[in-house]
Amino acid sequence: xxxxxxxxxxxxxxxxxxxxxxxxxxxxxxxxxxxxxxxxxxxxxxxxxxxxxxxxxxxxxxxxxxxxxxxxxxxxxxxxxxxxxxxxxxxxxxxxxxxxxxxxxxxxxxxxxxxxxxxxxxxxxxxxxxxxxxxxxxxxxxxxxxxxxxxxxxxxxxxxxxxxxxxxxxxxxxxxxxxxxxxxxxxxxxxxxxxxxxxxxxxxxxxxxxxxxxxxxxxxxxxxxxxxxxxxxxxxxxxxxxxxxxxxxxxxxxxxxxxxxxxxxx
Length: 266
Known about the structure:
This protein is of the alpha+beta class.
């Protein structure tokens, strides 16, 4: 098992179960609509290079989240794990930016021989703290809306296959006022670029990009050669498709031009 030893976990090592990037181009959706918001949720400075996030347990089974400034090491580990290869994710202690109790995301991996995952208790001389925890899966709010958009991006073909032309009441001119307002705000991003991470672009095939765009109360996921889906805080669990029409192709192209893109691990 890959390990690192965070400050604050006593003499026990941290058994790293999984990891994620916290950069302008990629960050856990539960943390915020953009990179500065996501950093603020963890009490971190929004440095341009970002962080790697390590989610693990100490020898007593307590949950910990470790933020490291060694983004390249974290990215290499994630890439190796995605290919089914082992990788020792052990950042140097001088790169550790924060050690936080709990996990902000669901973690389904377990370590054999450790107690069941649980939140750590404050030491006698420590102030009480609220451990990080994933959002309530039964509720609906900004975090669930963003996670829903991520699911659509991840399973695009499945969601796209459920959409017929009949689903577009007015191709290119949605009837829902909330969706029309989202499109207006997307156009506003072109004139007044939003904070880093509000518009992200990822490879989706030859000459095709997946766009993930967020704003106050809404999320958008789109393929640059296809349609878009909109999710709204005010419409729990609903997904609104937006047809190509005359407007969407140019809008997506311009948004992609200002989007941040993930860099390959070095």
